[in-house]
Amino acid sequence: MNEKILFAVLLLAPVVGFLFNGFRWKSKNYMIAGSVATGAAGISFLSALLLVSKLFGEGAPKSVSAGFFDWILVGGLQVGASFVIDHISALMVLVVTGVGTLIHLFSVGYMSHDERPSKYFAYLNLFLFNMLLLILGDNLLLMFVGWEGVGLSSYLLIGFWFSDKEKAAAGMKAFVTNRIGDAGFLLGIFTLFFLLGTVNFSEIIAKVAGMSVETGWTGPLTLAGLFLFVGAAGKSAQIPLYVWLPDAMAGPTPVSALIHAATMVTAGVYMIVRLSPMFVLAPNALLIVAIVGAATAVMAATIGLAQFDIKKVLAYSTVSQLGFMFLACGVGAFGAAMFHLITHAFFKALMFLGSGSVIHAMHEEQDIRKMGGLKKYLPITHATFFVGWIAIIGIPPFAGFFSKDEILWFAFSSPLGGFPLWFAGVVGAACTAFYMTRLMALTFWAKPRFDEKHTHPHEAGPSMAIPLIILAVLSAVGGFMGIPHVIGEILPGHPGNWLEHWLEGSIAKPEGFGHGSKVMEWALMGISVSVASLSALTAYNFYVVDPERPAKFVASLPKLHNLIYNKYFVDEIYFAKIINPIVGGSRALWAFVDVNFIDRGTFIVGDFVKGIGSTARTLQNGNLQQYAMYIAIAVAAIFLYLLEAPKRLLEIFGG
Question: What is the pLDDT of residues 257-307, one digit of tens each?
């Protein structure tokens, strides 16, 4: 099939779903709404498969593209509505449409009792369309349109239950926080355009190829990289712009899986990987990326240790795992970042949907302190969640082990890495193993802490179970696409690192970047697996074997626990130091300028105009005698003027 037709189908299928459900948004028939939306997402996935298949085989092209029309033609800025699938975007488009289709399917059962399913599925399709624009656009401006589109769509989905003030506020918080990051993204685009005269990805990469590495902090590529990273930090929830993502759990649980596992939050990582040839020329910018990523990974992981809302635990886990991806980018391991992006999409989407199954079974209860013993009631959910747990804590041979350990290895061995970054990653991994085991224990393994006679938790229908099973399989085997060389050498058939081979030539590598000592790689791998295992066993002992111990431990460190439980009071600090002063200053400015000058000036002008109007109104009062007097006065004035006119003409012309 023609590439242009496939691109059109890929992009427009979710638009059709959005319009169909949008025009019938008051309909409560969830089956029709869900079937159309899921079908639209599935059609996009099939179109993506057909396009990506063109990149395989002997002599296959490095990319498949299609241009539809000239979009912006202003002076030197020439931007077309053109789309491309190459070896980088191919991975993203398959993850987004594939996992997105499974989440749409899960939503059919999950939203069956909602009052506005058509509206929900319309928003879901709109989000998918904007995410595809972000991924497939062949230039920064088209990416930015999708970037803003997913921001709008996420606002609509997070605040879907807007009648609840807290949920509406969460949507607004996500929208405003992302706008701060987007301002940095725009500055990065402007900087690159002024420097290179183009916003097209292929042209940017071609033009920076001949440039030298910048060693200072004020070079144009360094500044562009830092500005772009601000945008990435907003969209991908990194310090200091991460605060929106945990609150975004206010939306329906499938929204959390779609936005915060597989799609929107990975946009910043994808953007940096796509521009890796530029970033490797700005090592100082990459240093900031690595430091912020490592700090975010540790900070979010520690917060996850003390949360009790099942979705909040997963939310902070997402922030932490995104920190790992940025750590990989910062040390120049762009392939490892993409690898973890893919595996994380599998196991985190699985766990978010699994949490949705738990919440659905527990009649909307989200506090894990009020659960326990659900393994007996939810066998499918437990089994699939178990696979996600093993994957995320990094136990071989599940997906998270391969991608996480590759990041830790390059954080240690890369010329842009080092021991501090590796150690931060290990601490984050240890915390991850503890809080995810704690989540499993309090939800599924420990004694029930709810009224079993009246709650009656049970498994949901096939529309919710099938996506869980598929994602569990992917979480189990997905890591084999990137088997490290040191492991591949000892396996039968010596399987290579398929993902590394696939991305070869599409991503850049810093000078001196390589695999290093095999002995050291094995040693560090053993350390990370041992630390994760020990941390998980400790959590199991705390919450299953000796459930009284956590309370005693918290009592011994009340101040530290209070600090972590309250998320380091970051939101409170933002309100006290940033938001409230801005609001107060704005009110003072309004009172001084608007009231004293604008309103008062408007009042004076208004009185003047009103006075003129009142005077003019007296001329038309309906009194015929007064009208006759006005006419007589006017005739007399004209007559006098005419008598004087000849005299003035003679004076003018000297007659």
Answer: 888 776 788 999 999 999 999 999 999 999 999 999 999 999 999 999 999
**Centroid of chain to Cα 475:** 21
As given in the structure block, the two tokens for residue 415 are 């010329």
- Quickly tell me which residue has 């000078």 as its tokens: 511
In the chain, which stretches have pLDDT less than 50?
Answer: none
Asked whether 44 and 14 are in contact (CB, 8 A), the reply is: yes
Token code pair at residue 429: 């991994």
Please give the Cα distance from 192 to 89 (Å, whole number).
21
For helices 220-235 and 165-196, give the axis angle rounded to 10 degrees. Answer: 160
Question: Of the candidates 589, 544, 565, which has an alpha carbon nearest to the alpha carbon of residue 437?
Answer: 544
Could you give the C-alpha distances from 561 to 125, 303, 371, 556, 567, in angstroms and in order? 41, 10, 22, 9, 10
Crossing angle of helices 462-477 and 399-413, in 10° steps, is 40
Q: How far apart are CA 135 and CA 599, in angstroms?
A: 48
Decide if 293 contacts 329 (C-beta within 8 A): yes
Beta bridge partners of 309: 367
What is the value of pTM for the model shown? Answer: 0.88
Return the pLDDT at 639.
67
Through-space distance between the first and last CA atoms of the chain, rounded to whole angstroms: 93
Question: Nearest-CA neighbor of 299 among 327, 279, 319?
Answer: 319
Report which of 33, 466, 101 is spatially closest to residue 257, judged by C-alpha positions.
101
Distance between CA 231 and CA 144 in Å, rounded? 10
* CA angle at 397 for the pair 396 and 403, rounded to the nearest 5°: 80
Residue 447 token pair:
């004694």
Q: Are 225 and 188 within 8 A, CB to CB? A: yes
For residues 68 and 71, what is the distance between their CA atoms, to the nearest angstrom? 9
CA distances 73 to 79, 199, 202, 616, Å, are: 6, 13, 18, 53
Neighbours of 355 (CB within 10 A): 26
